[in-house]
Each structure stands twice: as structure tokens, then as C-alpha cells.
């Protein structure tokens, strides 16, 4: 007992107080809402499904961030533009097919081609980024590639705006995706199922790849220690390019999923999901691929369920405005009690 | 990135290969420029009136630049090889553009690329129709490539002035509006302006004159510059000292009279420079000195502005203080408290965890400011209005007339008056920052920045040090926010978004992290630049992003770095594979 | 390294030197200094490429000063629009509208070419201030078309109107307080409607025509949306209705189902969401998937009165309502304008609903310039534009036949023909992706009949 008191300092106590009071607020709010019975189980089910679908998209984008961070130790701010370029370019194909009816007649084929196109474009952008903006700065202090990434982000946003125009583009409605699946009293839309399943497949596939293939092993080695990996005969440059390719392809796919779920794409569409995805990556433990998945899900749920669950109970008007605030507060809470994220870091050294 | 020209004989095929490759890249760049609409946007402005428009210059620069790079890379001794390489590169680039026009005449590209219109094709073929225009284009590419090769082969003494002069003429043409408007203040310069500029671009005579002048200056600097420098160094110390003092005195006078000289618009730009400078100095303490990556600095800015707003606006029940100066300490204090409160949860976090949490904090503050929840206290989306100007005593911040001894009667607008307020604030903050940097606290920060664990082992109280960093950094942000609120006489939550934090971060890194003069230069560059770039209108952020990337690629240590940082970065120019100890660098937590 | 230090110093120095201006110029004869409303730049600049007009010929006695335009110089009209960032479609739309007006006028006025350029105001107060300062510093500007966002306007007005003596016509500011008698600043005009009217009309329709007693509102945190939603809510409550929820989403939000689920618990008859295409589209697309909202009627405002919204919302938009300027009352030239717009700028649909207002605003300026007494022409072709006279001429616009209707300026700057109507989309409209052409109801018209 005494040793416990010796180890904790004043700051620890203050942090626990802050964390504790936040948790208390959450519990009180949740209790109030649940007691008042404002929402039935159907609503809660819907909130959860929304949250999981949204979280799945965040998770897939977050993987790109976390992989690049694991290997290069840099925050790739331009990843949000990688995410944007794929669906924005694929829009034209989707629109043409949607209007001609091809998409409704052959949904699976149509979707596969759209995914392929989007992933190809996103991958190309990611590889170009790596080659032009990041490779020369491989050994620079950490903040320098950050600025480069920010500059590249601006550049890409306005480049695509110049190419395709500033207005919002709407993906065509696909009848098959709108239909609902009934599970008793609850219903889910096909598109939500598609998003959740596709995200799960991608993440599962990636995990298998990393754990079981030689390239995956090489990637883990490079993220552990670049120089030693090079000494072991691994071509570090090539591994880095592969990382960007995978991250880019996943981002492109996530972009199409996003477009299918929310329909609207535009040159600024990547900005906010990018920040959220980065938050998800950190939440789960940066550098950690399963962590990114967990973080994404957690974030999606927090945004979807959170405002209703506790802000409403605390009597705050228009709680949905504050959903991002909730997401970030959850982040702080998690990091107070688990400073390296939910699943921790896979990096052997704590030195970030 | 590009190799210095070697003198080894190169096989023709290698040179040609480089030529084709780089030509393709150049072509893609040219096509991209066309498709994003820059060519059309710039077509109405002429660099040299009625001779060459900005869009044509863009194309020419692209071809030229690529040809030059190809010739450099091929590094050939034989002039004929260089010529062929250059010509080939230029040709390949132009062929790609021709391909675009050709494709466009067959396929309706405009459905996807909104700028692929008939006007674009006309522009690209110089209004000569498809076939003739394509030939023109290819001829142009060829000629530019050859010119690049020729210039490359010039002896360096001749090459540098020529290149500088071309760049100078293009710059004068590009920035014609800015230069014209600001120089027109001085009546003595009007005839020179009329000579140089016609209604839409440089006059031919003006362009030629500029070319010769700039080339001459560049030449003289190259050959005689060292002599002047050593001449200066050769003077006895006493007169050097007086020379220095004279410069400093002139500098002070210039700075004090700046708003008068610069006129309304540039004074306003300087106000924003001052604002970002204040914030940059604050963030410099957190990121530069203490190495804590803070991505949510805008929160302190917002808190300072909102506190002042809430306390002084007559439209709110809480508007009890009516003098901005009395509300100022409260604003700064609120920001400091926020800094400490933010600092506590992140004490144990490192690196990017810290970054994302601070980013979150910035967003939380903005969302709270915007929310309906807090609307009764701080206005929600409608913001707070009616914030008073920083009137003090007899000095009122309204438009007035001044009579100055030598300069006669002048209009003195609030933008210019705020300059002095910013100047005072910046001087104060620079003073504090410089003193603190050299103090024990400053050194403690640097120890923490380099290695937290070792610093703790050396007896530095991490908690106090970090909290002090956050608090002091936040105070400068709060000061900036308070002045901002007064300048706009209102606050809106939309002004406090994540981009502000990013911009401040860019300023300190481009200026040189940790270095105080660096922050000044960075603020001037990064705030002044978008204003200069208003000339390119819609493509402002495109260029801004591009400039950021280029700056980091060419000068990662910043414009005016600390001496230590420069040493670190240029050690790493050699391959630093021998162990982590030598490869300095990642020192930011 | 030293080179770069020198370069930095040169950067600094060149900024100073390049603008080294003579404060020495006393106020030139063509500009009368007045402490209340002086001219643009403190160091008053003569127009650049021409010599100052010979004092003997024309003396500017105008209270706000004059702009001198040489024989071969263009008439410079400036704009302050938001051309970058989230709201750039609004700025580009109004810019296009004005450019089309210039094209239709032949690109010339009073025998001089028209130069139309301006600054990006970024839909923020500091952006508005920066844009205004840059425009005010240029003394060749005769009038300003702008701004788009109300926050820009509030920051720009002191600089452009009070300091520089210019006149400004806004094609899209709708915030009520800009033309509020207590707050209005002379020189500010607008061809856009006033939201006070729009919100009240909407509430009138919902309560008295549709006979709904319960409504909810959603805004997106922008000044415009929040203001309009509040006006609606207040009016609705005054009629006797109940507002079950006043919610808000953020710009950039995609998933509206949680918010809608929450609103569903209050069981409103109608949701009024006067926001923009992006978020509005999501709401429309997702609302029927939310249990409890299957029958709720939707109503939007001019922010989503656009075919892009129909596309974004999907088939749920059939049967929904909008409060909007009464386009059917727009003159016959409107369709021709839209055709020209689509052709010149190669877009599939107009980017925002304010191009016609911008077109009219520019034409108002041209018409005012041509009124007698505003511009004095020298025999050699030099023009002297008197700013106060121009301002008065614009303010005296009466029964000006613009595309948006009969434009008559009130003393407080509201020039628009505030005919607000309510539109409803039919299945046909959705199939053709066109906004309904005739209103379903307007104040003073026959009662609303459900289709």
C-alpha cells in the first residue's frame, strides 16, 4: 500500500481526478438517458450499426496511417488526399454506368471495377507522394516530412479541384444496396453490411499478409528497426513502396465504401475523415494494425452512440454538434488510462 | 536530388533515355497544368504585353525546366549530345500536349475534366487549328529544349546572370499588379512605371531593360561581391561599429515609419504577420524549445479572443469591462490556465499521442465555441460583436489625419495603428522569449527536448518544466487572440479552425525550429506569401502547398535555423547508417 | 549559409523598399479629404498609368472623392467572394453571374472596357477584412460586388464603405442585421433577400397552410443557417406551434441517422433544415431509413434549392418543400442566363442559387454609372467617377427590371424584390433533375393544395 503511494505523484492524482470525473459524467449521463427510456432497443441497435459501419471506414483509412507511421515514423497528412482521389476519379465511371443502367444490372461486376479503378488511382497518388515528397526526407527530423505532407495535402486538394471542379458529385443510387435486411424487429441496409463486411475482409486479409508472408515479415522488420533490417538484406526502399501501395489501395477502397454509404464526394472530402482516422490510429496504438481497427470501431461508436447516450442525459441541447468533441474526449480518457493506446504499441522502443 | 554535371563521356543512348524519360514527365506536367485550368486562368494576363502571356510562359518554363534537368542529368561533355538531349526532351513534352489536343478533338474530355474545353485547345494550338497548331507546339518544344541546352553549356559566369535575369523579368511580369499598385505611391517613380508597364504586362522596352539590368547586377555580384564583402571586413573595428550602429538606427526609423510607407494594404498584411508572429513565438516555446508537438495551438488563440470578447462586448450580459486594456490580462490569464489544464493529461504522453490529443483539444474548443450549448454565453455560430478598439487615453483607433514634419498630411487608418500595437507586443514577446531561452528554464526545456529520460535523471522536474512550457506558450497565443478580437471587433468560431494551428506550425518549421529570428522570417514568408499569391487567384493554395514541399525538400533546417540544428542536418547529408548515435535528428517528442 | 541570411534580409528589405512610398504626396487635388469618409489609401495615390487630370479642368467636389479613369483605362469593378475552401461554389457562382452580366453588356461601359477582378474573402471575418483592405488600397476601383458570407460583410463594411467611400452590393448576404435600420451602414446594398422575411414565410406556410403544429429545425453552425432556423422557430412559435427540437450538425458530417433518430423521438410533423447541399443531401437521403421519420415532411431553404441537391438526396426529395426566392417571378431572361452559364463554364448545373442576383447587382452598378451627374467625362475621354453620386444613384434604383424581379432599393439597403415563395418537388421534377418552376404557394396567393 505504501509503495503505491510512493509511486504515484501529484500529477498522477490530478490526472486520475480529471479522468475519473469525465468517466463519472459519462456514467451519469448514460444512466439518465437509459432511465428516461427515450430510445428503444431498436434505436440503440440502429445507433450501434451506424457506428460500426462508420467505424469500419475509419478503421480502413487508419490502417494506411498506422502502417506508414510504423515504418517511417511520420504522420502522413496527405493520406486524406490519397483517400479522396480514388472515389473522385471513379465517380465519372460510376455516374456513366449509373445513368446507363449498367450498374443496376450488374452490381457486382460494376462495383468491382469501380473499386479497382479507385484503388489504382489512390495507389498511384500514394506512390508518387512517397517518391517525390517523402523519400528525399527519409533522414530528416520528424517534423520536416510533416510539413511536406501538409504542403502536399494542400497541393493535391486544389489540384483535384482544378481537374474535376469544385462542386459536389453524387454517386448513383444502387437499388440493391438500399434494400433492407430484416432481422426480426431490426433492419440493416445492404450497404451497411457491405461496408462492415468489406472492411473486415480487408483488415483480416492485411493481418494475414503481415503475419504470414515473407513481405509481411520484412515489413515488420523494417518497422522495428530500419537499419538492422537493411543489414539483414531487406530492400528497405522497396518495402516502403509496398507499404504505401497497400495503404493507398486500402484508402481507395475505403473511399468507395464511403462514397457508397454517403454518396457525396468532393475535393475536400478527405480532410475530416483523415483527421478522424488518424485519431483512430492513435487510439488503438499507433503502429499497430489491429489497433487501428479497434480504434476505428471505437471512434465510430463513440460518435454515433455517444451524444445520445450521455450528452442527452446531461441535458445538453443539440448534442450532435459536439460529437467530435466527444470523440476527442474519449481519446483523452483512453490515453490517460492507457498512454500507448488501447492495444499498445508494437514498437519495441517507447521513444516515439 | 539532381546530380552535379560530371564530365564523364556518356553514351548517346543514356542521354537519350534520360531525355525521353524527363520529357515524358515534362509532358505530364504540362498536360496537368492545362487540365487544372491554370493556362486558361492566366491567359488573360500578359507578361510582356501582347507578346507573351502568362500561360505561354508557364508552358515554356515547363519545357525549359525539364530540358534543363535532362541535359544536367545526362552530364555530357560533348555539346552536340546536350543539344540533342535538350531538343528531344522538349519535343517529347510538347508531343504529349499535342496528344492531349488530339485526344480532345476526338473524345469529349470535358465531361470529366472540366477545363478540357474548346477554349483550352485553341489556347494550346495558338489559335492555328489542330494541325498547324500542333506543329507550332512541337516547334516550340524543340526550340525551348535547344535553348536550355545552350544555356547549360554557357560558362557559369554567363549562365547565372542570364537565368537570374529571366527569372527576374518573369517575376516582374507575374507580380505586375502588386508592384504597380504599391510603387504608384511615389510620384517620382511614375515615369519609370509607365516605361516598364503597359496596361497588361511589361512593355517590350521595359522587359529588355529589366533583363539587362538584372543580368548586370547578378554578374557584378558574382564577380565583385566578394571584394565588397572583404572590403567591408577590412575596415577598422571602430568604423565597422559605427557602420553597424548607423544601419541599426536606420532600421529602427524604417520600422517605425513602415505603415506610412507601405500604405493601407501592406500594413494590413504586416498586421497579420505580427499576429502569426506572436503565435509562432508561443508555439516555438512549446515545440521548438521544449520539443512538445502541439497541434492544437489555436485553442489558446481562441480562448484569448473569446475571453476578451465576452468581457467587453456590450451585447452580452457579461460585458462588464469596457476597456480592452483591462480585459487583456484576463484573456492572457485564461489562455495560461487552458495551457496548464491541457498540459496535465498529456504529461505522460509522447510524440504523436501528444500531437493528436492537442489537436483534439483545439477542435474541442472550437466546437464548444460553435455549439448551441454555450450559445447564451458566447454567441454560438453568430459570434460576438462590438468588441472595442484598444483605445488608450487620447489615442483613438479610428481613421484620422496626421501631420508629420517632413511628410505632410497623411491618412492614418486603424490597420496602420494596429501595426504599432503588434510591434509592441512582438517586441515584448521576443524579449521574453530570448531571455527565457538563455535561462535555466530554457535550458531545461532543451534538455527535455533532446531526451526526456536523461533530463529527468539529471534532476529536471519534468512536470513543472512541461507545464511552464505549455503555460508560457499559451500566454502568447492568448495575447495574439486578444489583439485579433480587437482588430476585427468581433469573434466568430469559424476563425479558429485546425488550419490556423497548421499554419503556425509551418511558420516555425520553415523559419527554423527553435530559432527566434527564424520565426520572424517564417512569419514574413508564410503570411506574406499567400498575399503575394493573391495574384494567382484560385490557385493560391496549390502554390502554397507546392512552396511548402519545395522548401522542405531544399532547406529542411529552415530559413534561419539555430546553429546546432544546421550542424545536425548537414551531418546527415552523408549516409548515416552507422548506428543511432550519429544520426541526430528525431529529437521532437 | 550567409547567403541565405542575406536573402532573408533582402526579403525583408525588398518588402519595404518595393513599397517605399512618398508619404510626401500631399492630398492630390482630385480627392477631397474629409475626416468622416476619406478616400482609399492614406497616402493618396494618383491612378497609376495616367497623369493626374489637370486641376484646371475638373475639380472633384464629391464628398467621398472621385476615381479618375484615363482614356484608355478600364473601369475597374472589384468583387469580394469566397473562391477557395468549402464554400467556393457559392463564390464561383456569384462571380460567374457577374461575369455574364459584363459579357451581356458587351464588356464595356461608358466607352471603356470593364475590368472585373477581386479578392478571395474566405467566408470568414479576417478573410473579409483582408479582401476589403486590398480592394480599398486600390484606388482604381469604383464599386464592389460582394460579399458572400455575412461575417465577411461585417468585417468588410467599415473598410470599404466608411474608409474608402465605395459602394458595395451583395448578391448573397441574407443576414437580417446587415440592413437593420439601427445597424445599416450607408453604401451597403444587397440584391439578395432578407432572411427575416424568408423564415417568417416558411413558418406561415407550415402552420397556416400545411396546418402542422409540431416542427423541428436543423442548422449547420453557419451564421446563415442558424439565423434562418431561429427566425423560423420564433415565427412558428408565435403562430402557436411547438418546436420539438432545434438540432445542429457540423459542416462535414455525413452520418445524419443519429441526429434524425433523436429528432424522431419528438415526433415532429416537419423538419426545416435551411442548410447547404452537402449536409442537406445527407439528411434527405437518410431520413426515410430512420424509424419514426417515414412520414415526416422535409423543408429546406435557398441553400439547397439546386439540382445538385436533388441528386444528392435521391428519391426522398419527391414531395419536399423549399422556401426560396420566387424564381418564377424572375424575368424571362433567366433561362437564357442559365444556358449561357452552363455553356461558358462547362458545368452540368448552376453551382449555387445566387448567380442571377449577382447578375442584377452588376447591372445595377452599370446602370448607376450611366445616370447623369455620376460620371463626368472630359473631352479627351477621361472619366471622373464621383463616389457619393454613385452611391446615391445606386440607392435611388427604382423599378429596375432585373432578372430577380423589380429592384427597388430601400433606404436601408434592401434592394431585392423580396418575393419569397414555397416550392414543392414532384416526381417529375426529380426524374428530370430540375427544380420546380412554379411555386406551390406564396404569401397572398391562393391557398396551398396538395398535389
State the share of residues found in helices of chain B, binned by percent: 55-70%
Q: Within the largest sheet of chain B, what's the order of strands? A: 1-2
Biggest β-sheet: strands ordered side by side in the sheet of chain A: 1-4
Taking all Cα atoms into account, the compactness measure Rg of chain A is 22 Å
* Number of helical stretches of at least 4 residues of chain B: 23
Unreliable stretches covering 5 or more consecutive residues of chain B: 1-6, 572-589
Rg of Cα set of chain B: 28 Å
- Look at the structure and give the mean pLDDT of chain A: 84
Total domain count of chain B: 3
Of all chain pairs, the largest interface belongs to:
B-C, 79 and 68 residues
* Beta-strand fraction estimate of chain A: under 5%
CATH class of the largest domain in chain B: Mainly Alpha
Structural class by helix and strand composition of chain A = mainly alpha
Low-confidence stretches of chain A: 347-352
Oligomer: heterotrimer
Strand pairing plus helix content of chain B: what structural class?
A: mainly alpha
CATH architecture of the largest domain in chain B: Orthogonal Bundle
Total strands of chain B: 8
Q: What is the third-level CATH name, the topology of the largest domain in chain B?
A: ABC transporter involved in vitamin B12 uptake, BtuC
Q: Sheet with the most strands of chain A? A: 2 strands, antiparallel
Counting DSSP E segments of at least 2 residues, the number of strands of chain A comes to 4
Describe the protein in words:
The complex is a heterotrimer of chains A (about 350), B (about 600) and C (about 450). With about 350 residues, chain A is mainly α. Chain A has helices spanning about 1-5, 10-35, 40-70, 80-100, 100-105, 105-135, 145-165, 175-180, 190-210, 215-225, 225-230, 235-260, 270-285, 290-310, 325-335; strands spanning about 170, 180-185, 185-190, 265. In chain A, the strands form 2 sheets. In chain A, strands 1-4 form a two-stranded antiparallel ribbon. A two-stranded antiparallel sheet of chain A has the order 2-3. In chain A, a hairpin with a 2-residue loop joins strand 2 and strand 3. The longest helix of chain A is centred in the N-terminal third of the chain and has 32 residues, at about 40-70. Chain A is globular and about 60 Å long. Mean pLDDT of chain A is about 85; it is low at about 345-350. Chain B has 3 domains: about 10-155, no CATH class; about 155-225, no CATH class; about 260-390 and about 405-570, Orthogonal Bundle (ABC transporter involved in vitamin B12 uptake, BtuC), CATH 1.10.3470. Chain B has helices spanning about 10-35, 40, 55-75, 80-105, 120-125, 130-155, 155-175, 175-185, 190-195, 205-235, 235-290, 300-310, 325-345, 350-370, 375-380, 415-435, 440-450, 450-455, 460-490, 500-510, 515-530, 540-555, 565-570; strands at about 45-50, 50-55, 195-200, 200, 385, 400-405, 410, 490. In chain B, the strands form 4 sheets. Chain B has a two-stranded antiparallel sheet with strand order 1-2. In chain B, helix 1 (about 10-35) packs antiparallel against helix 3, helix 12 (about 300-310) runs antiparallel to helix 13 (about 325-345) and helix 12 (about 300-310) packs parallel to helix 14. In chain C, the strands form 4 sheets. Chain C has a 6-stranded mixed beta sheet, sandwiched between helices. In chain C, strands 9-8-10-11-12-17 form a 6-stranded mixed beta sheet, covered by helices on one side. In chain C, about 35% of the residues lie in helices and about 15% in strands. In chain C, strand 8, helix 6 (about 225-240) and strand 9 (about 240-250) form a beta-alpha-beta unit. The interface between B and C is large, with 79 and 68 residues.
Amino acid at each position: 500500500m505504501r509503495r503505491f503511494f510512493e509511486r504515484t505523484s501529484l500529477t498522477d492524482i490530478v490526472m486520475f481526478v480529471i479522468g475519473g470525473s469525465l468517466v463519472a459524467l459519462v456514467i451519469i449521463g448514460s444512466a439518465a438517458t437509459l432511465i428516461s427510456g427515450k430510445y428503444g432497443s431498436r434505436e440503440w441497435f440502429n445507433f450501434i450499426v451506424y457506428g460500426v459501419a462508420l467505424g469500419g471506414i475509419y478503421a480502413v483509412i487508419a490502417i494506411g496511417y498506422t502502417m506508414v507511421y510504423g515504418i517511417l515514423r511520420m504522420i502522413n497528412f496527405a493520406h486524406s488526399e490519397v483517400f479522396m482521389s480514388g472515389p473522385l476519379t471513379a465517380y465519372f465511371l460510376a455516374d456513366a454506368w449509373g445513368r446507363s443502367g449498367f450498374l443496376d444490372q450488374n452490381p457486382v461486376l460494376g462495383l468491382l471495377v469501380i473499386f479497382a479503378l479507385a484503388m489504382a488511382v489512390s495507389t498511384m497518388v500514394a506512390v508518387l507522394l512517397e517518391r517525390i515528397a517523402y523519400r528525399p526526407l527519409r533522414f530528416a527530423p520528424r517534423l520536416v516530412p510533416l510539413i511536406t505532407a501538409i504542403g502536399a495535402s494542400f497541393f493535391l486538394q486544389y489540384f483535384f479541384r482544378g481537374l474535376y471542379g469544385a462542386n459536389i458529385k453524387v454517386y448513383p443510387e444502387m437499388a440493391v444496396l438500399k434494400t433492407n435486411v430484416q432481422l426480426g424487429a431490426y433492419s440493416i441496409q445492404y450497404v451497411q453490411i457491405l461496408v462492415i463486411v468489406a472492411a473486415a475482409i480487408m483488415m483480416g486479409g492485411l493481418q494475414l499478409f503481415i503475419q504470414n508472408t515473407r513481405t509481411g515479415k520484412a515489413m515488420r522488420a523494417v518497422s522495428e528497426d530500419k537499419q538492422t533490417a537493411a543489414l539483414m538484406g531487406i530492400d528497405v526502399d522497396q518495402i516502403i513502396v509496398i507499404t504505401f501501395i497497400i495503404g493507398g489501395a486500402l484508402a481507395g477502397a475505403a473511399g468507395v465504401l464511403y462514397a457508397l454509404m454517403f454518396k457525396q464526394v468532393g475535393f475536400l472530402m478527405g480532410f475530416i475523415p483523415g483527421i478522424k482516422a488518424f485519431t483512430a490510429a492513435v487510439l488503438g496504438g499507433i503502429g499497430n494494425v489491429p489497433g487501428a481497427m479497434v480504434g476505428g470501431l471505437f471512434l465510430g461508436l463513440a460518435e454515433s452512440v455517444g451524444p445520445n447516450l450521455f450528452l442527452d442525459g446531461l441535458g445538453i441541447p443539440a448534442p450532435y454538434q459536439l460529437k467530435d468533441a466527444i470523440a476527442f474526449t474519449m481519446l483523452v480518457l483512453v490515453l490517460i488510462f492507457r498512454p500507448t493506446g488501447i492495444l499498445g504499441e508494437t514498437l519495441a522502443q517507447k521513444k516515439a | 536530388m539532381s546530380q552535379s554535371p560530371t564530365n564523364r563521356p556518356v553514351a548517346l543512348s543514356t542521354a537519350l533515355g534520360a531525355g525521353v524519360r524527363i520529357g515524358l514527365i515534362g509532358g505530364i506536367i504540362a498536360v496537368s497544368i492545362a487540365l487544372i485550368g491554370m493556362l486558361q486562368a492566366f491567359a488573360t494576363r500578359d507578361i510582356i504585353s501582347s507578346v507573351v502571356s502568362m500561360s505561354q510562359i508557364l508552358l515554356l518554363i515547363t519545357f525549359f525546366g525539364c530540358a534543363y534537368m535532362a541535359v544536367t542529368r545526362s552530364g555530357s561533355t560533348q555539346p552536340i549530345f546536350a543539344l540533342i538531349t535538350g531538343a528531344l526532351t522538349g519535343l517529347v513534352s510538347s508531343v504529349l500536349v499535342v496528344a492531349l489536343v488530339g485526344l480532345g478533338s476526338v473524345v469529349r474530355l470535358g465531361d470529366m475534366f472540366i477545363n478540357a474545353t474548346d477554349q483550352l485547345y485553341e489556347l494550346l494550338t495558338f489559335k492555328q487549328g489542330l494541325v498547324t497548331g500542333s506543329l507550332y507546339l512541337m516547334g516550340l518544344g524543340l526550340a525551348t529544349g535547344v535553348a536550355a541546352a545552350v544555356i547549360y553549356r554557357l560558362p557559369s559566369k554567363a549562365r547565372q546572370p542570364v537565368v537570374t535575369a529571366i527569372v527576374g523579368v518573369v517575376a516582374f511580369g507575374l507580380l505586375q499588379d502588386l508592384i504597380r499598385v504599391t510603387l504608384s505611391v511615389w510620384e517620382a517613380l511614375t515615369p519609370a512605371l509607365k516605361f516598364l508597364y503597359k496596361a497588361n504586362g511589361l512593355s517590350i522596352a521595359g522587359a529588355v531593360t529589366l533583363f539587362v539590368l538584372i543580368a548586370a547586377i547578378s554578374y557584378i555580384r558574382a564577380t565583385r561581391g566578394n571584394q565588397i564583402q572583404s572590403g567591408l571586413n577590412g575596415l577598422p573595428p571602430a568604423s565597422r561599429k559605427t557602420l553597424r550602429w548607423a544601419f541599426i538606427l536606420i532600421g529602427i526609423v524604417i520600422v517605425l515609419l513602415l505603415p506610412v510607407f507601405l500604405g493601407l494594404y501592406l500594413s494590413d498584411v504586416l498586421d497579420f504577420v505580427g499576429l502569426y508572429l506572436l503565435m509562432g513565438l508561443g508555439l516555438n516555446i512549446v515545440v521548438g524549445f521544449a520539443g512538445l508537438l502541439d497541434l492544437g495551438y489555436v485553442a489558446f488563440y481562441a480562448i484569448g479572443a473569446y475571453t476578451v470578447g465576452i468581457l467587453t462586448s456590450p451585447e452580452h450580459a457579461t460585458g462588464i469591462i469596457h476597456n480592452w486594456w483591462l480585459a487583456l490580462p484576463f484573456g492572457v490569464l485564461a489562455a495560461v490556465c487552458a495551457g496548464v489544464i491541457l498540459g496535465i493529461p498529456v504529461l505522460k504522453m509522447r510524440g504523436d499521442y501528444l500531437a493528436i490529443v492537442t489537436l483534439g483539444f483545439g477542435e474541442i474548443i472550437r466546437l464548444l465555441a460553435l455549439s448551441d450549448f454555450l450559445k447564451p454565453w458566447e454567441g454560438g455560430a453568430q459570434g460576438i460583436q462590438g468588441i472595442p478598439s484598444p483605445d488608450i487615453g487620447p489615442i483613438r483607433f479610428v481613421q484620422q489625419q496626421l501631420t508629420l514634419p517632413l511628410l505632410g498630411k497623411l491618412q492614418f487608418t486603424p490597420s496602420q495603428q494596429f501595426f504599432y500595437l503588434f510591434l509592441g507586443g512582438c517586441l515584448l514577446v521576443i524579449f521574453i522569449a530570448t531571455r527565457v531561452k538563455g535561462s535555466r528554464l530554457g535550458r531545461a526545456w532543451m534538455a527535455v527536448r533532446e531526451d526526456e529520460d536523461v533530463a529527468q535523471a539529471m534532476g529536471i522536474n519534468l512536470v513543472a518544466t512541461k507545464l511552464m512550457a505549455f503555460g508560457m506558450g499559451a500566454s502568447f497565443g492568448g495575447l495574439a487572440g486578444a489583439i485579433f478580437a480587437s482588430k476585427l471587433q468581433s469573434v466568430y468560431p469559424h476563425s479558429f479552425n485546425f488550419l490556423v494551428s497548421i499554419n503556425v506550425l509551418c511558420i516555425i518549421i520553415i523559419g527554423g525550429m527553435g530559432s527566434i529570428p527564424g520565426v520572424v522570417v517564417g512569419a514574413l514568408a508564410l503570411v506574406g506569401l499567400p498575399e503575394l499569391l493573391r495574384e494567382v487567384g484560385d490557385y493560391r493554395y496549390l502554390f502554397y502547398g507546392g512552396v511548402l514541399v519545395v522548401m522542405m525538400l531544399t532547406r529542411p533546417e529552415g530559413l534561419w535555423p539555430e546553429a546546432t540544428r544546421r550542424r545536425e542536418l548537414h551531418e546527415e547529408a552523408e549516409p548515416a547508417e552507422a548506428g543511432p548515435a550519429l544520426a541526430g535528428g528525431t529529437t521532437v517528442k | 549559409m550567409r547567403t541565405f541570411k542575406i536573402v532573408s534580409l533582402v526579403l525583408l528589405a525588398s518588402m519595404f523598399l518595393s513599397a517605399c512610398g512618398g508619404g510626401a504626396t500631399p492630398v492630390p487635388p482630385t480627392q477631397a479629404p474629409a475626416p468622416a469618409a476619406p478616400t482609399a489609401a492614406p497616402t493618396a495615390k494618383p491612378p497609376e498609368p495616367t497623369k493626374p487630370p489637370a486641376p484646371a479642368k475638373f475639380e472633384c467636389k464629391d464628398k467621398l472623392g472621385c476615381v479618375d479613369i484615363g482614356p484608355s483605362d478600364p473601369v475597374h469593378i472589384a468583387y469580394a467572394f469566397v473562391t477557395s475552401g468549402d464554400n467556393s461554389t457559392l463564390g464561383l457562382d456569384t462571380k460567374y453571374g457577374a461575369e455574364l452580366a459584363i459579357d451581356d453588356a458587351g464588356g464595356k461601359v461608358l466607352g471603356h472596357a470593364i475590368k472585373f477582378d477581386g479578392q478571395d474573402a474566405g467566408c470568414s471575418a479576417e478573410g473579409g477584412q483582408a479582401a476589403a483592405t486590398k480592394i480599398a488600397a486600390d484606388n482604381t476601383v469604383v464599386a464592389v460586388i460582394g460579399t458572400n458570407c455575412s461575417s465577411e460583410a461585417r468585417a468588410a463594411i467599415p473598410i470599404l464603405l466608411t474608409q474608402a467611400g465605395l459602394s458595395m452590393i451583395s448578391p448573397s448576404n441574407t443576414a437580417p442585421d446587415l440592413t437593420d435600420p439601427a445597424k445599416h451602414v450607408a453604401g451597403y446594398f444587397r440584391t439578395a433577400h432578407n432572411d427575416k422575411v424568408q423564415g417568417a414565410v416558411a413558418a406561415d406556410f407550415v402552420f397556416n397552410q400545411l396546418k402542422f403544429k409540431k416542427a423541428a429545425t436543423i442548422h449547420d453552425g453557419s451564421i446563415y443557417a442558424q439565423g434562418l432556423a431561429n427566425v423560423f422557430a420564433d415565427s412558428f412559435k408565435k403562430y402557436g406551434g411547438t418546436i420539438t427540437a432545434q438540432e445542429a450538425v457540423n459542416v462535414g458530417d455525413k452520418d445524419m441517422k443519429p441526429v434524425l433518430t433523436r429528432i424522431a423521438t419528438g415526433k415532429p410533423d416537419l423538419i426545416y433544415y435551411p442548410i447547404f447541399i452537402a449536409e442537406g443531401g445527407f439528411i434527405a437521403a437518410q431520413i426515410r431509413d430512420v424509424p419514426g421519420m417515414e412520414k415526416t415532411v422535409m423543408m429546406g431553404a435557398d441553400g439547397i434549392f439546386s439540382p445538385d441537391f436533388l441528386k444528392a438526396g435521391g428519391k426522398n426529395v419527391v414531395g419536399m418543400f423549399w422556401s426560396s426566392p420566387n424564381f418564377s417571378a424572375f424575368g424571362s431572361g433567366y433561362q437564357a442566363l442559365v444556358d449561357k452559364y452552363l455553356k461558358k463554364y462547362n458545368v452540368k448545373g448552376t453551382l449555387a442559387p445566387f448567380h442571377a442576383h449577382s447578375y442584377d447587382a452588376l447591372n445595377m452598378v452599370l446602370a448607376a454609372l450611366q445616370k447623369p451627374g455620376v460620371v463626368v467625362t472630359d473631352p479627351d475621354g477621361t472619366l471622373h467617377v464621383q463616389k457619393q453620386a454613385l452611391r446615391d444613384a445606386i440607392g435611388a434604383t427604382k423599378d429596375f427590371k432585373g432578372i430577380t424581379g423589380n429592384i427597388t432599393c430601400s433606404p436601408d439597403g434592401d434592394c431585392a424584390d423580396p418575393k419569397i415563395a414555397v416550392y414543392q418537388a414532384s416526381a417529375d421534377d426529380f426524374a428530370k433533375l430540375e427544380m420546380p418552376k412554379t411555386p406551390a404557394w406564396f404569401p397572398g396567393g391562393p391557398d396551398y393544395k396538395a398535389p
